[in-house]
Amino acid sequence: MRRFRDLLNLTGREREGLVQAAKMAVAAVGAWLVAREFYEPQSFIAPYAAVFMIGGTVFRSLKDAALQVFTVTLGVVLAFGVVMLVPYGPAALGVAVFVGMVIGAWHRLGSSGIWVGVVALLMIAYGTADDPSYLVSRVGESVLGAVIGVVVNVLVFPPMRLREGDQAVETAAGEIVDLLRRIASGLREEGWDLDGAREWHRESVALDRAVREADDAIGRGRESTWYNPRVLLRGRRPEPGNAVLNTLYDIAEQARHLTKVLVASADPDDTAPLTGPAFDRPFADVLDELATEIDRIRENPSDCDVDHDALRETLRRVRELRSALARQAPWPDHLPPEDWSAHAALVLAAERIVLALLNT
C-alpha cells in the first residue's frame, strides 16, 4: 500500500520516466515478435531500433527513425563493400570499423553515427557481410523496428513538455526577483560592503545561465507539440514567447551591469566613488518596485501582464532621482558631485530594466 502511495506522489518528470520505460518495453517486445515472423528468430536490430525511438518527442522520434535506418544502411553497405575489396577477414574488420567511425563522425548523423562502424563490425564478425540477402534483411529489420517505435511513441502518451518552459521561466524570473530584493535590502543598510557586492555580482552572472536554460526549455516544449496528436485532442496551451525571453535576457544583463557598478563603488582600490546612503535608500525602493513587476512574469510566464502605469511611474521616479542629484548645489568648481558617475550608471541600468518590462 505504501509503494502504491509513493507511485501516486511521483513528480511529473518521474512519472514520465516510468511511462517512457514502459513504452520502450512494449516497443521492444512488439518489434522482436514481428521481426521473428518475417526475418529470423534471434533478431536484435528491430527491438534495438524500436527502443531508441521512444526517448524523445514525436518530432525527435521521427528524425531519429530516419537517422537510424540511414546509419544501419550505411553500415551494411560499408560491410559488403569492404569484404568485396579486402579478402582477409581481420584486415576487412579493421578497415570497416575505421571507415565506419570516420563516416559516423559526420555531425549530421549526431549520436547515431557510431552505429555505422558498429553495424559494419557486426556484419563482418558474423560472417554474413558477403550475403546481400542477409544484409537487406537487416536493413528491413531496422525499418521495422523504427516504425514500431515511432508508432508506440505517437500513440501511447506522446510527450508534452510545455510545463518545463513555464517552470524554467518561473525559476529565472524568481532568481532575478530574489537578487534585486537582496540588493535593495543591502542598500538600506549603511554597512553593505565589497564582499556583499561581489556576492551580488556572482549571482547576477548566474542569471544569464538561468535565462538560457529557460530558452532551451521553451524550445523543447515547442518541439514536443510538433506532429503530436495530443495537441489536436487538447489544443495548444499558451507558452512563454520570445518577448518574455528577450525581456529576461535584457534584465539579466542590466542586473549584471548594476552589480558591477556596486562592486566598483565599494572597492577602495577602484576609482569609482561611493554611492552614499542619500542615493542608496531611494534607489533600493526603485529596485523593490522593479522586483514586484518582474514577479508578475514569474507568476504567469505565458501571459505576463505587467502594470504599465506602475512601470511608467517607476521610470519617472528614477529619472527624477537622477535630476534631483544633478541639481545638488553648490558644486565645487561648478563640477557635478563626485559620486555622480556611479549614480548615473545605476540609474541607467534601472531605466533599461523598466523599458525592457514595458516592451514585454
From TrEMBL:
Xref: Pfam families: ArAE_1
Transmembrane parts of this sequence: 21-39, 45-62, 69-85, 113-129, 135-157
Annotated InterPro entries: ArAE_1 (IPR010343)
Chief location category: membrane
Membrane topology of the entry: Multi-pass membrane protein
UniProt entry keywords in alphabetical sequence: Cell membrane, Membrane, Transmembrane, Transmembrane helix
Name of the protein described by the UniProt record: FUSC family protein
Originating organism: Actinophytocola gossypii
